[in-house]
Amino acid sequence: MPDSRTLTGGHADSRLDHFHGGVDLRARTPLKVVAPTDGWVERIGTNPAGYGRTLYFRLSDGNTAVFGHLSRYEPELQELVRDSQLVRGTYRVDFVFSDSLTAPRYSAGEVLCYTGSSGRGPAHLHFEIRHGAVQLDPLSFYRPQDNDKPVIAAISWVEYSDDIPLSSGRDLVLSASPRVKSSEPVAFLIRCYDPGPWGRNAVPAAIRVYVNERQVYEDLPSRIDLLCPANIYEKLVYREFRTNDRDVRRLFDWPEKDAESEMDLPLGWIEDFIGVVRIEVEDRNGNTSSVRIALEAGSERRNLRARDSVETPEFVLTGDDVSLSWAELSPQGQEILINNDDFAFPAKLVLTANQPFEQGKYFFKRSGTTGRIPLWRIPGGADETISCYVLRGGTYGVAVDATPPKLVVSGKSGKLTFTLVDEESSIDDGSVKCRVNGQTAIPEFEYEEDGGLIWTQSSLGRGTHRVQFEAANRAGMSKSWDVEVNIP
Ligand SMILES: [Zn+2]
What we know:
This protein is mostly beta strands. It folds into 4 domains: 7-140, Glucose Permease (Domain IIA) (Distorted Sandwich); 151-306, Sandwich (Immunoglobulin-like); 312-400, no CATH class; 406-487, Immunoglobulin-like, CATH 2.60.40. It has 4 helices and 36 strands. The protein has helices spanning 75-88, 229-234, 259-262, 307-311, and strands at 7-9, 23-26, 32-34, 39-46, 53-58, 64-73, 93-96, 105-106, 111-115, 124-131, 134-136, 151-159, 170-171, 179-182, 186-193, 206-211, 214-219, 223-225, 239-242, 247-251, 273-282, 288-297, 314-316, 335-338, 347-352, 362-367, 373-377, 385-390, 394-400, 406-412, 415-421, 427-436, 439-443, 451-455, 463-473, 478-487. The chain binds zinc ion. The site of zinc ion (ZN) has 5 residues, from loops.
């Protein structure tokens, strides 16, 4: 573990298509990562995207620590990875040691690997604790001394009749004693975070709601189940934790179906009530903060709208030709704008074309302030319909990839580096092969899809070197290069 105590990302932050299942710790490259307890290596893998170079370590308590975005491994593991890369001729490898007797074993304090910026920069350590397929909040294991109370930054409330729950919260003024009066059932939203030695990005350990001092609700935002991704999207409970604005929002249970027909109000809604609601937040060290709200809630439930119709807009590709590129798509049919402010997430999108999607040609994309992010490849074939879930606002649409990857190789300080980009979809990293002076070399990706150092079996001197490269994008468009590169 690096000695850095600055969290740049918290457990359960909502990311584009998943919840962040660990913490990100700011860490210079390379810092030693040592075995937290005696244990053994379960898995090591290298991946240009996502976790980058990663190591899974089985701890003595049976949980697994996951370290991501590494720069390299301790020498023996590094050699194992390198040998396998050379045999396969690709950067990506993935070892799983299922047997603790033959797996590499380490004692507490021994160096396992080094921090870096592989997969996703800038330099930081992604650190997870898993119990089987459940990602647990690492801070609840490595609990720092913390005498600061969790902070409730804001509380807002919504009425049951609201069509658009996320935007319609009305903020309470927390300095006065807040009062809420409504003829409808009422639910609350909270923004809170846990300050302390790890910075402000930690989520609290527990959020509870009491009505007249009887506990009616508890959430422990520390578990993410990897085997049930559908739970993340379709679960009754929708969570949104953000580190961007340095606080955390918690939305109480929301009705998934038309609750009117079921006549049961889900937990979280308070109806026919006059009294005091107390919302309490607790951190890992037992420090608590709470807010009391004088509440008068009715039960009229007017204007109720079925949520399903909000969640499943139909997106129909019109026109004779669906092979239009993203940029040419017309706002009348080929793209859909989902606004954070007026849409309930997660939203399910269904896209129907008037002819089958061509295999591998199309991508479902999201454009936003961070640029276009290719989400996934459309299966194509006979399928004229695709569906997906989105957690965030933005413009979504179908794009076609029409240009091959672009490569730049340069030489400096006795080394060769490369960048490999694909403008429209993304590089298929399994396709990237490289030879330098006729020998297999490994292009090592440091940042997602952008490239990095080319590792060669023998060190390179000054002068001209022959570099052969081949790569394909995810639309299956491949290209090869045979260039001479000078190392000055
Ligand atoms: Zn991370």
